[in-house]
Amino acid sequence: MQKEMAYSFPDEVLKHVFSFIQSDKDRNAVSLVCKSWYEIERWCRRKVFIGNCYAVSPRMVIRRFPEVRSIELKGKPHFADFNLVPDGWGGYVLQWIAEMAGAYPWLGEIRLKRMVVTDESLELIAKSFKNFKVLVLFSCEGFSTDGLAAIAASCKNLRELDLRESEVDDLSGHWLAQFPETCTSLVSLNISCLGSDEVSFSALERLVDRCPNLRSLQLNRAVTLDKIANILRRAPQLVDFGTGNYAAELQPDVFSNLAGAFSSCKELKSLSGFWDVVPAYLPALYSICPRLTSLNLSYATIQSPDLIKLVSHCPRLQRLLVLDYVEDSGLEELASSCKDLQELRVFPSDPFGVEPNVSLTEQGLVAVSLGCPKLQSVLYFCRRMSNAALVTIAQNCPNLTRFRLCIIEPKTPDYLTLDPLDAGFGAIVEHCKDLRRLSLSGLLTDHVFEYIGTYGKKLEMLSVAFAGDSDLGLHHVLSGCESLRKLEIRDCPFGDKALLANAAKLETMRSLWMSSCAVSFGACKLLGQKMPKLNVEVIDETEPPDSRPESYPVDKLYIYRSVAGPRFDMPPFVWSMDEAVKILH
Amino acid sequence: MVFEKDLNLDATELRLGLPGSSEESLRISNKRALPDMNDDSGVAAAKKCDQETAPPTKAQVVGWPPIRSYRKNSLQTKKTEAETSGMYVKVSMDGAPYLRKIDLKVYKGYPELFKALEDMFKFKVGKYSEREGYNGSEFVPTYEDKDGDWMLAGDVPWEMFINACKRLRIVRGSEARGLGCVV
């Protein structure tokens, strides 16, 4: 009787039930219940997220999930953001597009991060998917405005075009004019990364005019302040707006026009852009400040007094990105005005300066930790730190989920005691039980890794630089951090022992990056031999790793789990430690 | 370890001044300069003490600090714009853990400059007399001139001063005794 009940629902009913299950984790769990649930589930999965484009092949994805409408892919390792991954490493999307063009005619959404996207790929997207709605290219490169023109011209129902932080070869601003007059469906447009001075502004205005559902618009730096009012008056329904540059000679009529335009946007909650700010124009924002929940001033070179004035008008602020011009005094004001603050990012205005150019120290962060009980996510660049401050921060903010601290000079000790910062970071992992992401800096010994391995049970991503004394450090992390998915390490004295002893752990993680460490070529080969489900890739731009003794350390190492086997698009400076590939190389 | 050492000191040394101005190293001259002026105190003291005589060089490490090129490029364009249009000099004060940058072109003369410095660093300059230097104040404004010598600020005509001044430093009065002046 029991057994029959399990199969008594017709497939359509199960399908309908499954359609309410959106999270990948839950869907994966559903597919493991039994064979028939696996079958039903795979036919109705509409969204696939692939965190490493080399972990699986397009063919495998298509074979298992034949009816996908939305795909998200990530390519290069995170350290590519800091120029540690040489050009030509990989992350090409073309093969994915080509295979999906045949298999998924109804594909509507493509989201890519850190991938190489060519104009050819964009043109293929434009002509293959009749119902294409969403294109997000986050931190991508390899394409030009020609490719964008193809997308604009062909995608009749495009809802979202988001090019955030991508590198675009800006050949001409006229691609915007390629959006047909019949295109009225845009909801989100982010062109903030475009460099050229010739964004066709009139085309942009007309586009904004005919898209009544436009909620999110990020302009690029070339758009001048005087143009903002025109745009806003055409789109008073905007929720999220990014200005171009925010500088002009102060003229009363321009000011009042701008202030009026902003005040007519009753839904506006999020602002960004603000390149080249003239502080006198900031009060034009005051009417919307009380509603603002997110403010990105991280390109604005405005000084602390002006920042303080602005921030004090924004009591509902949940997210603030800012340069270190905000100084400790600005952060103290933030702490007293913005009790809803959840995320703070402070970037350095003079990262390569030898001496501090602003009065921003650990005190600012301590003040925010004290005043903002909802603080969850921190990215903080500074030049000095103390264990005492870190302990205070940890105790004030036990709900932190992301904590990234960058003390600009590597191996900087506690400035008060000259001790390593082990105890401080130890306090962070101990008190913040939900910490998922952590970046370390400063002088650190193996002890900090012992704390991390002991307490960092929910830690998913760890970034380490210029830290540790021995393999023991790495061993603590690999053996202790149960939830670890991504580990990236540079310039640490970690070698073969910890890696080989914890080889099995690597199959439970998405990826491991190690550069300028002490892992020998021999160990890499061994790992490649013993672990067929791992792709072990050695990156060396100077010479082949086997032209040196096996005991010689490799320059860069990238290890990731994969069911697709070694990849076929490796450039000459990437060597796979897979046995089969070595013969062919 | 990946360090990119650049032996071209001029290229790596972070200096302020109009582009094209020559970077001269310290020279011995018969001006009486303040002793030990290159021995900067403050935050980076420990690191700097083995670089007392050489100007501070920064060995740039690839990918550190971890800032995206996108962001770095945005800062660079701003910097070059600022530096070509103004006469920016660094200002430091003994005991203060930070430096400031100011544009000398913005000020019409010493009174305005000193007022700005007083506001910035919260101190008083005191009365100046040609014979006795600055009286009645704990802190004294000094500057490094094109020859690398440290001089008392206020001696020379304003125009001459802003063209010669490479950086400013506000020192404790006791250290400023015997400071050189142009003969």
UniProtKB/TrEMBL annotation, chain A:
Key words of the record: Auxin signaling pathway, Developmental protein, Nucleus, Ubl conjugation pathway
Listed name of the protein: F-box domain-containing protein
Subcellular location(s) per record: Nucleus
GO molecular function: auxin binding
Keyword Cell cycle: no
Source organism superkingdom: Eukaryota
One Pfam family recorded for the sequence: Transp_inhibit
GO terms under cellular component: nucleus; SCF ubiquitin ligase complex
From TrEMBL, chain B:
Pfam assignment, any one: AUX_IAA
InterPro entries hit by this protein: AUX/IAA_dom, AUX_IAA, PB1-like
Signal peptide: none
PROSITE patterns: PB1
Keywords from the UniProt entry: Auxin signaling pathway, Nucleus, Repressor, Transcription, Transcription regulation
Protein name: Auxin-responsive protein
Main location: nucleus
PANTHER family: AUXIN-RESPONSIVE PROTEIN (PTHR31734:SF247), AUXIN-RESPONSIVE PROTEIN IAA17 (PTHR31734)
Family recorded in the similarity comment: Belongs to the Aux/IAA family.
GO biological process: auxin-activated signaling pathway; regulation of DNA-templated transcription
Subunit-structure text: Homodimers and heterodimers.
Ranges where the PB1 domain occurs: 86-178
Species for this entry: Gossypium darwinii (Darwin's cotton)
GO cellular component entries: nucleus
Function: Aux/IAA proteins are short-lived transcriptional factors that function as repressors of early auxin response genes at low auxin concentrations.
Localization terms from the record: Nucleus
Disordered, as annotated region: 20-58
